[in-house]
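sorry for the late reply, my laptop died twice this morning and i had to redo everyting from scratch. anyway the thing you sent over, i finally got around to it. pasting the sequence first so we're on the same page, its 63 residues, then the predicted structure underneath. double check i copied it right bc i was rushing
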Amino acid sequence: MIIDEQWIYCPVCSNKTRIKVRYNAELKNFPLFCPKCKQENLIDAKGFQIIVIKEPDAKTQSR
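ok and here's the structure:
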C-alpha cells in the first residue's frame, strides 16, 4: 500500500495542522499556520519532505 497523502505537522509544536498534502504536490514559500501554537512558518514541501524556511530578523539586517 502506497501512502498517497498525509497531514503536515507544525515544526514548532509538532501538532497536526489543517493542511493535507499529496505525494506529488510541491509547495514553495507556503505560509503554514498552526491553530494550536498560533505561529506561522514558511515551508517548502516536495514528496513529503518538509523544509522550514528561516527568515532573517528585521533587526539584524544590515543596509
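The chain has one domain: 5-53.
thats about all i looked at so far, will dig more tmrw
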